[in-house]
Design a protein that fits this description.
By secondary structure, this protein is α/β, with parallel strands linked by helices. It has one domain: Rossmann fold. Helix content is 32%, strand content 17%. The chain is built from five helices and six strands; from the N terminus they run βαβαβαββαβα. The chain has a six-stranded parallel sheet, sandwiched between helices.
């Protein structure tokens, strides 16, 4: 199993599930690095994601978090990328009126059917995306929807460290 991690705004901190998975097995998990984590810009992020996926090959799995989800879906749309599967967690809604101004270029969020298996993991109380909007994304992308009750943004601050259930979801696509 080979996995590329796509963090969101401000990167995934040391206690974040993506970081912990990478630390647990660096031969399996690799982070796609961005030059500017504080000011995500679609035109900068998407080519880096596409290049990393093209280099890894079609058998790679993806984990994407927050705005990393929209960046990944843009990359699939723009570069016609193929992967084995994708775990799309706490996708943030860049189309929200009160969305952080530091994050630019990700609208409109692509509403395409993804050409591979994907799982959208959404929380019922995520401040970055309303649950019904996350469910719409899952339908549009052809993804299985996995709902977590009151899980916040599914990151360190929300109590998600190692996140064993997330690892099980990822392995279900391997």
């Amino acid at each position: 199993m080979k996995v590329l991690n796509i963090p969101g705004w401000k990167n995934s901190d040391k206690g974040h599930w993506q970081s912990l998975w990478e630390a647990s097995d660096p031969s399996v998990f690799t982070r796609i690095q961005q030059e500017n984590w504080d000011y995500p810009n679609k035109d900068e992020w998407v080519p880096k994601i596409a290049q990393a996926i093209q280099s890894a090959g079609p058998e790679v799995l993806i984990t994407a978090h927050s705005i990393g989800v929209a960046a990944f879906v843009h990359a699939v749309q723009e570069y016609d990328l193929k992967v084995k599967g994708a775990l799309l967690v706490a996708s943030s809604d860049a189309e929200k009126p009160d969305y952080p101004k530091e994050i630019t270029g990700f609208t409109p969020i692509p509403r395409i059917k993804l050409p591979f298996r994907s799982i959208v993991v959404a929380s019922t109380n995520d401040s970055a995306v309303h649950y019904t909007r996350a469910a719409e994304f899952a339908i549009d992308w052809g993804s299985t929807l996995n709902v977590l009750n009151d899980a916040g943004h599914i990151e360190t601050k929300s109590g998600f460290g190692e996140w064993l259930n997330g690892m099980r979801l990822l392995k279900s696509m391997a």
